[in-house]
Amino acid sequence: MSIKVFITDDHLLILEGLSAILESIDGIEIVGIAQSAQNALEQIPLLMPDLLITDFHMPKMNGQELLREVKKNYPEIKVLILSMHEEISEIVELLKDKADGYILKNSGKEE
User: What is the DSSP code string of 43-79?
Assistant: First the structure.
């Protein structure tokens, strides 16, 4: 049984690169991608991923707002936040909103 992953980031290069890395790992299936939180919220109920990986800083609706909506409506979906920012206060707020993890964009594929 594979882990179904959905990725949201407003940068197509990040979406395609992260998808390629994750698809190369046995047991992971990319079920969808979106360049906006709004588009992700439309697709998630149809695809029901096990894991949502989302960028934190996106226009219109950011990753924290997306996290809140997903956890409110689909608490069983794990949410991993991607960001280039290392502010502890920001990370603490995301964890309070029930983020399941936080990873920096400058991390390597092993992490």
Answer: HHHHH--SEEEEES--SSS-HHHHHHHHHHH-TTSEE
Structure tokens at 82: 């991607």
Each residue of 12-44: pLDDT tens digit? 999 999 999 999 999 999 999 999 999 999 999
Q: Say how far apart CA 62 and CA 72 lie, in whole Å.
A: 16
pLDDT cut 90: percent of the chain above it: 76
Q: What is the pLDDT of residue 63?
A: 92
C-beta of residue 32 within 8 angstroms of C-beta of residue 47? yes
Separation of alpha carbons 69 and 86, rounded Å:
23
